Amino acid sequence: MRYRAVVSYFGKDYVGWQRQLNGISVQQRLEEALTRTFGVPTECTASGRTDAGVHAAGQVVHFDADTPIPADKIPFAVNTELPDDISVLSCKPVPDSFNARFSAKRKTYRYSVYVSRHRLPLLAPTHAHIAVPLDIDAMRKCAALIEGEHDFKSFEASGSKVKSTVRTVYRAEVAAEGDIRGGVLAEGRVYITVTGNGFLYNMVRIIAGTLVYAGMGKLAEADIVRALEEGDRTLAGKTLPPEGLTLMSVEYGDDDADGAL
């Protein structure tokens, strides 16, 4: 029987989702736990890769297993075999035609930033640190330009091999909390949420970096338009570090989003 599971993980100590030769991946740890739970080698497929250091609140995977364990009890059984930084949140049977990767319709990522003159150790593991105030209104205006179907070549890191760099962003939102005066965040947190039909290599981290540059006054709306039109990576903002990025949820069209926002 095929199962669909939602998995959460803290990515700091992993080389990413996918198995690699240069270190321990989330996939490796989860497959080891599934194998011990079911007593036979068990592989799993995720909705997509997350890079080294990136987290997930609602990664979706599928796996095949012949087990008497009820589907809703599988998370309890598997979690006893997992390290504390990985957890299966839910599990349910699905048709054999379901594929966590190829059946996915939308994914939502959130990039988290904190604004402070000094480094805050309790936020550092899951947020990027920005030491200067950010103009939230400017960030929101630029985020609106990201929405829609565009060629996101200028928002792709080098090293990727894809047939097309055209993607659709359904939502690009900027939320902020803290000391906000006249639309400017002096101290506090910023959450950049992006929903799309797919993402290029480091695309969300580059979008986040571009919006942060807009908040710092280093980029304007016209610069975003130009970056989208010309496809020149140097016209967009820098790639922000991985610790601020979290895969929040994946949607498949047959039900609500898997995961939590």
- Helix and strand content put the structural class at alpha+beta
- Major sheet attributes: 12 strands, mixed
Uncertain ranges: none
Strand percentage lies at 25-35%
Task: List SSEs in N-to-C order.
Answer: EHEEHEEEEHEEEHHEE
Write down the overall geometry: globular
How many E strands? Answer: 12
Helix content: 10-25%
Tally of separate helices:
5
Q: What is the terminal-to-terminal distance? A: 29 Å
CA-atom Rg in angstroms: 19 Å
The average pLDDT is: 95
Give a structural overview:
This is tRNA pseudouridine synthase A. 21% of the residues lie in helices and 33% in strands. The chain is built from five helices and twelve strands. It has helices spanning 26-38, 74-79, 136-146, 203-216, 221-230; strands at residues 2-9, 44-46, 55-64, 86-94, 106-115, 128-130, 134-135, 148-151, 166-181, 184-196, 245-251, 258-259. Strands 1, 2, 3, 4, 5, 6, 7, 8, 9, 10, 11 and 12 form a twelve-stranded mixed sheet that branches. Helix 3 packs antiparallel against helix 4 and helix 3 packs parallel to helix 5. The longest helix is centred in the last third of the chain and has 14 residues, at 203-216. The mean pLDDT is 95.
Break the fold down into its secondary structure elements and pairings.
Blueprint: E1 2-9, H1 26-38, E2 44-46, E3 55-64, H2 74-79, E4 86-94, E5 106-115, E6 128-130, E7 134-135, H3 136-146, E8 148-151, E9 166-181, E10 184-196, H4 203-216, H5 221-230, E11 245-251, E12 258-259
Parallel strand pairs: 3-11, 5-6
Antiparallel strand pairs: 1-3, 1-4, 2-3, 5-10, 5-11, 7-10, 8-9, 9-10, 11-12
